[in-house]
Amino acid sequence: MIISDQDQEIIDKAIYLPLLVIVLNRDLMAVEETPFKLKSPYRLLIEETLKKVQKDLAVVKMYMRKNKIEVERLGENERGFTEYYTRSKDSEIRRAVNNDVLRNKTEKLLDEYLKS
Questions:
Q1: DSSP string covering 90-104, please?
Q2: The model's pTM
């Protein structure tokens, strides 16, 4: 079956937003451990961005519960891909996403959040 554009957008967010949370948490730890003279502006920027991402992720999870959509990360394979399993009321899809694509899209998403 075909997944609606709206559902596909939610599925993509369910993949990329958790990755962005991981990146932001790591960056927050790096700021704390790095001898910046002025840590506070960097920490606040990361914390505010993290709050926005977590808020959006909560909306995604609510939509997924309401519409019976599941996204499960199956893991990485040796060819540089991460596999995801998606189940909705209309379909079940297993797809492999290139890790470079994951990184680039996550970086683009971070850029969008930082500019908003």
A1: S-EEEEEEEHHHHHH
A2: 0.91
